[in-house]
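Continuing from the previous page...

OK, I double-checked the sequence for Glycosyltransferase RgtA/B/C/D-like domain-containing protein against my notes and this is the correct one:
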Amino acid sequence: MLQNKYSKLRFYWSKRYGNWVWFGVVFLLFLIHLLTSRYHDLYYDSSGYWFLANTFDQKGASRFSFYNFNSALRGYLLPLLHYPAAVIVREFFPDAVSEAAKSMGALWAGSVFGVVGPVVWEKVSGKAISNLRRLLFAGVGFVLWRDYFNFPLSDFPSVLALLLALLVAYRSQNYQSALATGAFVAAAVYIRPLSLLVVPFVAGLLLLGPSGQDSTAGIKISWLKQAVRLGLFSLAFLLVGIPQYVINSNNYQSPDLLILGLGDGDFRINEVDNVYLFKINEGLDKQRYETNIGTDYPIPQAIYLDAAGRALLERNGNPVFDSYYKYLVFVVSHPADMAALYTRHFFNGLDVLYPGPYVSKIYGSTLPLSLVNYTVLFAALLVILLRVRQLQASHWLLVGALFITCLASMPLMIETRYFLPLNLLLYAVACFGWPTEWQWRMVPRKHVVSVALAYCFFLAICLTLSGNTQASLSLKPKTLQP
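Thanks. Re-ran it with the corrected sequence; updated structure tokens here:
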């Protein structure tokens, strides 16, 4: 009888479940957590996004119109996606704003961790992913990022749009897929403007994918077909951008198709209103940022200072860079110092200390979460070292699309969510790319010892770097705690 039960369990465990099942499981996991979490309000940027969703009809005072959207800093698309929920909450459940945001967050989580992330990997690798690996990927996402989904922020929706674009672009076969790819990559851009950098990679993947696949069958793809595919990609992108153009031209007298990125004077450098330029200046002597909503830290801005960056600025007369050219000249003039600064920023982008964007206990222990994170990163590093030579051109384009926004974020004062695409890629490498044939008993003892020592060394380096960063917290240093 026990053997029959064991056989049934093995059957259900080895059975391949559909994407809707995985979406439902991950959605429910996150939803239960979110609805029982400590967060019951929207803070700062998240509150702003929800407010913008209500501006399309001026909180019910007028009919829906893109002309009513009144932000030169944010794109229109994420507030538009929130708009139906915002109207329902406003009209029928005025006290349930947080619950509505959490429900939408669970939808994003179910889509990214339950379906789209694994499906992209299956499409690229050509291999099915086992239940254990999919569960592990969702579990890593839950442990490290679970509280981000309490809030209607742009990070996961923009990454989801990018993943969908990559999924459709990879080995796409028809004109409809080119339209869909253009629409999805435009969605990523109009949710998070920095995603504009991924367009060349996705377009390259769109063109390389079919040719690469068909060349193996001896079929030559015509340049005309490729040109039409690229034209449809561009057309879809432009169509998604029309509402932003309407908003810019009517409300801000600008013919720009892209998000203007103007902060009402909040991001001025020598009278130049440019958010990115402001933030790269900020990132020279500030290496990390967390948003505090608790009582153990006196102000909302938990800033981790960069003493080496501050010293570099002081040695050069505390310059302020009001153009990218001046900043680039400074970087080239101080290659070693800037390489070290960017290395610190890169590590901070991967160093997930808190599972959410708004921290209730800045001085709480981060060690358990860090150990999980460093273990996953070490596993990903091992897989990369073992299998990097197997990557093809299309794989590199996909990696580039996921890495480029992280690279562009490296000069900024880092929040880990800026590195979300790279973090998700590394989690997928660790969970999906680990060799299926690998078993401890098959590994020579000397290699087991080497890997164990390397893991301990990797942990020591990560904990040292993280400890140094946390000790630089501006008002009161933070120490590593068990």
